[in-house]
Design brief:
Bound molecules: copper (II) ion
Strand order of the largest sheet: 5-11-10-7-8
Radius of gyration: 26 Å
Shape: elongated
CATH superfamily of the largest domain: Cupredoxins -  blue copper proteins
Largest sheet: 5 strands, mixed
Distance between the termini: 62 Å
Order of helices and strands: HEEHHEEEEEEEEEHH
Number of domains: 2
Structural class: alpha+beta
Strand content: 15-25%
CATH class of the largest domain: Mainly Beta
């Protein structure tokens, strides 16, 4: 029984494990389809690889000392506080080794990534701007429409939980919650941004592949947190523009919110008829 389980595990790990630039993934992460997601993967893989090596060394040393100082005839136990100069120096040296080879390295990698990518917000005409308003327990998205300004009559507000973006185009989002704190997470893009009550937060990302991907809430936000799932479609520029046009507000529209009531599950709060904000320009 135990043997079978072990074999199954080994088989599972073997089929999932794969070598990468920095080390090994033991479990396949969601496929990275973004421009800068590899940066996050590199930091995680570097950390995993180095701590795996250090952990193995500690275990080997432990086995060695257990064997070397085992109880046997002719040897008596000695009480050692481990505070000799030699021991203190060895402890400090190991601490520094860990600090410089892990902490300092991943801090350096992270700050470089923030500067070069995640905090280097895209500017210019081709940037797609989207406003995101999470609520208990769904995602609302808002596109500026033909006038390019938010919070105006021609804004495109697609059905709940639907987000579309064009491939190979920088997407800049601004996010503020309707109610409590949520967190906008796209695992396939390695990006995550909190929605904080009273604040408008910003994040950007860019898709390099088309497809359908999941948006998850990464902040425990209430009983329905687990089902707070959005659907991100990455498509060609033409398909995206068509989708925007299909979702444009109709002149003679009746109360569109009636339809939404059916979609919003029990326990969900109502969303306000009006939401959205004037785009906050980044300084
Ligand atoms: Cu949430």
């Amino acid at each position: 029984m135990v043997k079978n389980t072990m074999q199954l595990w080994l088989k599972k790990i073997k089929s999932k494990a794969q070598w990468t630039a920095w080390g090994i993934w033991y479990i396949d992460p969601p496929k990275d389809v973004s421009l800068d997601g590899y940066r996050i993967d590199n930091v995680i893989q570097y950390t995993d690889t180095v701590i795996t090596i250090y952990f193995s060394l500690v275990i080997l040393a432990l086995i060695f000392f257990i064997f070397k100082y085992r109880a046997r005839s002719g040897h008596t136990a000695v009480y050692d506080k481990g505070d000799s100069k030699k021991h203190v120096m060895a402890t400090i040296a190991m601490g520094l080794l860990v600090f410089f080879s892990i902490d300092v390295v991943i801090e350096t990698m992270s700050f470089r990534d923030l500067k070069e990518a995640f905090w280097n917000f895209p500017k210019g005409e081709n940037v797609l701007k989207v406003e995101v308003m999470p609520q208990q327990f769904a995602w609302n998205f808002r596109y500026a429409g033909p006038d390019g300004a938010f919070n105006t009559d021609d804004d495109v507000v697609p059905a709940l939980n639907q987000m579309h973006i064009p491939v190979n185009t920088p997407v800049l989002i601004q996010i503020a919650p309707f109610d409590v704190i949520h967190s906008f997470f796209i695992p396939n893009f390695r990006v995550k941004q909190d929605a904080t009550p009273g604040m408008v937060n910003t994040m950007w990302f860019q898709a390099v592949e088309t497809g359908n991907f999941e948006i998850a809430c990464a902040e425990l936000c209430g009983n329905g947190h687990y089902r707070m799932k959005g659907y991100l479609t990455v498509e060609s520029q033409e398909a995206f523009e068509q989708w925007l046009a299909d979702n444009a507000p109709q002149e003679d529209e009746e109360d569109e919110w009636d339809d939404w009531d059916a979609e919003v599950d029990e326990g969900n709060r109502e969303i306000p008829e009006e939401w959205g904000w004037t785009w906050k320009e980044i300084q």
